[in-house]
Amino acid sequence: MADPSTYRPSPGSIPDAPGVYKFRDATGRVVYVGKAKSLRGRLNSYFADLAGLHPRTRQMVTTAASVEWTVVNTEVEALQLEYNWIKEFDPRFNVRYRDDKSYPVLAVTLPEEFPRLHVYRGPRKRGVRYFGPYAHAWAIRETLDLLLRVFPARTCSNGVFRRHGQIGRPCLLGYIDKCSAPCVGRVSAEEHRAIVEDFCDFLAGRTDLMMRRLEREMAEAAEALEFERAARLRDDLGALRRAMEKQAVVLGDGTDADVVAFAHDELEAAVQVFHVRGGRVRGQRGWVVDKAEEMGVADLVGQFLAQFYGEQADLAEAGADSGPAVPREVLVPELPPDADAVTEWLSGLRGGKVRLRVPQRGDKRALAETVERNAREAFAQHKLRRASDLTARSAALAELQDYLGLDSAPLRIECVDISHIAGTDVVASLVVFEDGVPRKSEYRRFALREAAEEGDVAAIAEVVRRRFHRYLKETAGTEPTNGDSPGNGNGGDNGGDVDGGSRPGIDPATGRPRKFAYPPNLLVVDGAGPQATAAADVLAELGVTDVAVVGLAKRLEEVWLPADPDPVILPRTSDALYLLQRVRDEAHRFAVRYHREKRSKRLQVSALDGVPGLGQSRRTALIKHFGSVRKLRQASVDEISAVPGVGRRTAEAVYTALAGRSGEEGESGA
């Protein structure tokens, strides 16, 4: 544990100006980023009596080994720079309101010739339009099922779409009029796109125009004695009204706003956001995060707005067509301390005026109270889950320390696993757990060649050697040029980021940690004594003496120590064994996934070997055009011959060859 007085800046060296500051640990890794209207006042507060600091702040300043700052001209610049640094360095003590990728949304694939409507989870893609997020996937499917009667756009995957186009018959949805069946040519691409655009307009809130149009068409059909069409339009109107009823009107004036509320205690905070568009609740999101320091609701509001809308702006710039990053109005429980700067920044993100205010009365106040109740409920549920989760993880790490005789609890655990089939396509994975939780951004994978024919023991040794050789290389930093000790980057008021020289483990070009800069406390290998011994021998050869090694055998779940003839038997119900199993299973999953990717690429080439008239360039052109051999196998001769450079005779040879190999591509892993 570091003493903050050892790296405290000298009195008077900190400028009394707005800026952004970074705390770094002994390895140079950024552990906290903050902003301040006065850098001097804010930074001096971190070096007060430790007993008076917030628990997480106290942990941060004792983890850090240096502090540095950058002076800016305005609070808006400080807000933007703080957000950029948090996104770039991902400091462990900063709160990150990351979007939960499990939130389902309704995606409309507008870039495709025949756009598709489907439930989607994951990162946003360029050009695709998204509606939501929704609390549950079933809510999207229920709404979509109602709307398909009025907007019969396709919802099938690309493979199903092509298959029905080849056989000339629509799917069930096409027969029951919940799809316009563009796959068999019932509607043209232009007509289908018009249906999709009407669907998007309806979900975007332009419902009144749509309802009036249908009512007018229904009246015209009735006057023309087209009673069947009028009855169908009447049913369509009923379906639209039912869909609208599921999105309750909360603000009668058609307001576009985000309503934010918090529930918090000394250590954690829960935030809920309701997205209101056209007066209706279109989506809801929620997070529970650790508080980085002592913060009231006003401070939480400022921090949340900067990070959340910064992320939304990044999504918009990446091409995700989901509307403006910021609505016209943001309703919060309290205004942040720098409300004017935040409002100016939000207006810049939107490209128009944004109102940031606290609702005082009426419908908006009632809605804010509803959002606050949701935040309190989410916080209470989180507390119940978190209590058992934290207790289990702490117990697991403590038990591992006791059972394995370690000097301290293994806060960082890495695990290596090998995957192959009969010695072919040999790959390895390296997964990382910190504080008992996966840190997926630091996962690594390896393609093995030298040890591929020598078995798993040699493969484990090669992976460990490569990983720790990189670690030793990346931590062999140079001495600072200004006479300061490594990591002591006290800044000045020159408006620049003062690093104080290069640091071990930090890339001087980017200022970010290198890939293998941090060693584990415990290295787990998938296997028994021989694998553990091989890994330990490599570490001894490289001179790495502060990393413990164990092997975890799958069959009996025995823990093997290097050069120990007998395993360590952990109780079957122990949290320590459960944690080791989670780490090992995650490494196995990651390795098998990589192995399947490599094997699939190899099979894509081998499936086309020997086809008369098909050379390397044409094979590459076919795979690039169709994306995979599986999709190529589904193509007709005409579709294959449409690929530039592939003639009719060659297309027929490819079609015949793939039809004869239809059962050869399986999927398995070691």
TrEMBL record:
Q: Where is the composition biased (Gly residues)?
A: 486-503
Q: Where are the transmembrane segments?
A: none
GO annotations of cellular component type: cytoplasm; excinuclease repair complex
According to its UniProt entry, the protein's GO biological process terms are: nucleotide-excision repair; SOS response
Keyword Hydrolase included in the entry's annotation: no
Q: Which residues form the UVR domain?
A: 208-243
Give the protein's biological function: The UvrABC repair system catalyzes the recognition and processing of DNA lesions. UvrC both incises the 5' and 3' sides of the lesion. The N-terminal half is responsible for the 3' incision and the C-terminal half is responsible for the 5' incision.
What this protein is called in its record is UvrABC system protein C
Q: Which gene encodes it?
A: uvrC
